Amino acid sequence: MIGTANGNAISITGLGAYVPERVMTNDELSTMMDTSDEWIRERTGIRERRIAGPGQALSDLCLPAAREALETAGVEGSQIDLIVVATVTPDMAFPSTGAILADLLGAHEAAAYDLSAGCTGFMYAVAQAYGMLAGGLAQRALVVGGDVLSKILDWTDRGTAVLFGDGAGAVVLERVGEGGFLGFELGADGSGGPQLYLPAGGSRTPATAESVADRQHFVQMNGREVFKFATRVLVTSAEAVLAECGRTIDEVDVYVPHQANVRIIEYARDKLGIPEDKVVIDVDRYGNTSSGSIPLALADAKADGRLQAGKLVLMTGMGAGLTWGSGLIEWTDGGRA
Ligand code: COA
Q1: What atom of ligand 1 comes closest to residue 258's alpha carbon?
Q2: Is 119 a catalytic residue?
Q3: What is the pLDDT of residue 47?
Q4: CATH number (domain holding residue 111)
Q5: Ligand 1 proximity of 288 Cβ (cutoff 6 Å)
Q6: Do 189 and 90 contact (CB within 8 A), yes or no?
Q7: How far is it, in rounded angstroms, from Cα 127 to Cα 125?
Q8: pTM for the model
Q9: Domain count of the chain?
């Protein structure tokens, strides 16, 4: 799917992020499994990640991120009429974490639900909310991307456990005077599903004592195949959205790729020809936070002053599905219509 703003000026008017307090370093992981700080840093760029506490569920991470996004947009929960939570680790299968969050925020007029597109979830959710605003169905949307992958990781599998962390980010989308989203490109290749998946717990393989004993309720991944896929789509998706919007890579001021692995990001940056100082990287501090990754990186870029009004920001995510998605936005720093 690909398309441009088509005359609509819809932008991010509020931004918030939250990560759990607990830091887990590579050295700590090395005491739990056969790995080392050196291996993890060299192969992934990750130094540490945040891990949710035993009682912390997704909505506990989303709530502070959402509150900050609402506050920076200067709106109340009751003014939100759409909530989309992108995640693969909802509080439970149902009710949706979106509905839980709507209640906690007092968003009683909002349609609220979850969206599952792996680590691309945030890009899908933003594009969907954008479409609802552009179509006139919604006036003010809250999009949250977050995951608590630590709860579904196999802590005996060094091939996956070292890569991920927990976190959430949120944005408010509204109509603005000018600027905002210029276009999106989203895609999915379901044939790649088995490369990164959670085998049991759904209707295909419901939970049984056997499925638990077989560790079927944990993330399984073919790292090398996912690496190849990720490096390919980060480039093709970015190129596609830029071409569709009539923009060039040289015009991009801030590049916000999904934070999975610094080697993947550097490969894409190199292929695309984006200078190093335009790339936002925080995977060293958070690991791969799945749907939380892009909004967390946006919050980082905002905090370090890179997200100024008028800047052209390119975001690209990729993940389970296999899915990918890019969005191009002319940053507006509020400025609602
Ligand atoms: N610590 C130490 N050694 C490890 C290890 C770890 N955590 N994980 C794997 N190894 C070992 C392997 O067993 C292998 O050993 P061998 O040569 O004796 O067989 C060796 O390191 C190299 O493994 P390989 O899988 O080739 O490493 P890699 O350079 O491909 O890096 C990943 C592995 C997982 C970091 C990399 O493939 C990757 O990042 N893939 C994409 C994952 C991803 O981003 N997923 C989410 C997408 S949203």
Answers
A1: 48
A2: yes
A3: 98
A4: 3.40.47.10
A5: yes
A6: no
A7: 5
A8: 0.97
A9: 1
Compute the distance from residue 163 Cα to the ligand 1 centre, in Å: 9
The closest-lying atom of ligand 1 relative to the alpha carbon of residue 29 is 7
* Dihedral over alpha carbons 186, 191, 195, 198 (to 10 degrees): 90
State the distance from the centre of ligand 1 to the C-alpha of 159, rounded, in angstroms: 6
Sign, Cα dihedral of 255, 261, 266, 272 = negative
Residue 11 structural domain = 1-337
Can you list the residues of the chain whose pLDDT is less than 70?
A: 335-337
User: What pLDDT is recorded for position 337?
Assistant: 60
Structure tokens at 86: 């992108």
CA 215, 220, 223, 224 torsion-angle sign: positive
CB 67 within 8 A of CB 16: yes
Catalytic residue among 62, 119, 245, 261: 119
Is residue 108 flagged as an active site residue? no
DSSP 146: E
- The CA dihedral of 299, 305, 306, 312, to the nearest 10 degrees, is 90
CA distance 12 to 102: 19
Burial (Cβ within 10 Å: 0-12, 13-18, ≥19) of residue 129 = buried
Tokens matching residue 10: 């819809």
Within a 10 A sphere around the Cβ of 32, how many other Cβ atoms? 13
Mutate which of 227, 266, 267 for ligand 1 pocket (most atoms within 8 A of beta carbon): 227
